[in-house]
Amino acid sequence: MPPGSVHRSRFPVLYLGFQFPVPVYIFLRAGCRIDRFLFTCRLFFLMPSGKSVYKAGKLLKIHLEYDSGMADGAQPAQAIIRSIRITGDFFLYPEEGIEALQQQLIGTKLTKDALTGQINQILTNEHLEPFGFNSEQLAEAILEACRQ
Amino acid sequence: MKIRLLETRYNSAAWNMALDEAMMQTAAESAAWVPSLRLYGWKPSAVSIGYFQSLQEEVDLEQCKSHGADVVRRITGGGAVFHDQEITYSFITKEYPVGIHDSYHQICGAVLDGLRTLGIEGQFVPINDLLVNGKKFSGNAQTRKKGVLLQHGTILLQVDVDKMFSLLKVPNEKLKGKLIADVKQRVTSLNRPFDEVAAAIQKGFAQRFQAELEAGSPTAEELRRCGQLISKYSGMEWNGRI
Q: What ipTM describes this predicted complex?
């Protein structure tokens, strides 16, 4: 880029974020409505988190950060996982697969069906075999962390 | 069939876990190889936690330090264990049932066969527990890497639940008293000497695997790898990774 030239983003809405302070950007993205603005600010600055201790066959301990999301500043979207840590006295074969399980749960919607489906898919694709919990129980443990 | 028998007596937590992994690694790369049964104890006493457990959440490190207890993370899953007055076994083999339940059943069955020679009638309760008169006296954990299976398990000779819980953290401190009372109801010990139980376990493995046990020592290669792995099991990079 030549000196003195102005970078023009192909995404003008995103580009606003570089020109205005974040609250102004959020206000514009929220359609200049104060209620949507406040809701988005809460989500933007305070990422909800939760913990749970869930007794399946073995104990599952979940540390969760999730994002309630705000689709295009209009409708609240379904909450999704931002980060997750699964600990406990369970077994998973091979053990190193826990990293793939945690990583691939990021972005999953926090509903029982979406979680169970995604967990099943990860277990199958990564050839993981859990002992001491099943997909439904892990999904329930994650949702429990959301409710805390 | 032959099984190499290693009686390595009492060692530190880091050495014990390092030797288990070293034996697995060596077995994976060795063509001339027989299954190994190792019987051992822990000195000083130690807390081991499972592969998936959080050190900070499970173990009171200050208390462990003041009691002089080692702390180590296993390469196997399962729960936190206080290794004090007990006998631990490790069984390493390349020939095992494909099903995980089946292999637990087989190896735990060998322990139970042995204890039966002492008149102790225990039972295997999946996933990984051994019970006598409805109370747990043994926890077992297994991993598989590069075609080698390691199962290790602890057999309580005496149990001090209060001391155990002084070193472990519980999810809810307010309910600690109730939890300790529950565990005292659910856990028992064999109240037999180390050597008597060790001899019985040897008989059990010989019987279950129709094998001849040959007393041996760790090989130079196993000890070399063990020496390299001790720093892993002594340090926080592995032990405190979660």
A: 0.92
**Cβ–Cβ of A61/B57 closer than 8 Å?**
yes
The structure tokens 């139970």 sit at B112
Distance CA A39, CA A22 (A): 14
Beta strands in B184-224 (DSSP E): 212-216
Place of tokens 């390469």: B75
Question: B182-219: per-residue pLDDT in tens?
Answer: 888 899 999 999 999 999 999 999 999 999 999 999 99
How sure is the predictor about B177, in pLDDT bands with cuts at 50, 70 and 90?
Answer: confident
| Closest chain A residue by Cα to residue B50 | A89
Record the tokens describing residue B64, joined without a space. Answer: 């462990």
- List CB contacts (< 8 A) between B51 and chain A: 95
Chain A partners within 8 Å of B80 (Cβ): 89
Report whether B23 contacts B30 (CB < 8 A): no
Distance (Å) from the C-alpha of residue B55 to the closest C-alpha of chain A? 10
Query: Which two tokens mark B13?
Result: 């937590």
Contact between A129 and B100 using a beta-carbon 8 Å cutoff? yes
Which residues of B fall below an 8 Å CB-CB distance to A? 50-54, 57, 75-80, 100, 127-128, 141-145, 171, 242
Contact B53 A88 (CB under 8 A): yes
pLDDT in tens, A52-72: 899 999 999 999 998 876 444
The residue with tokens 């994976």 is: B28
